[in-house]
Amino acid sequence: PAQKVPILYGGSVKADNAELFVKEGGVNGLLVGSASLNPKEFIGISKAIVTKK
Fold it and tell me: Residue ranges of the domains in the chain?
């Protein structure tokens, strides 16, 4: 069934919107693109989803 398929969001993920996607966007995970090239941004994304999930 479709309800059991995990959804990963791969759009423009940033530290300031990561929490929103995971908490309210109905996604199960994020595919971080160019933000992963910036260590501070990537850490911000990680903190946002770990502490707010």
Answer: 2-52
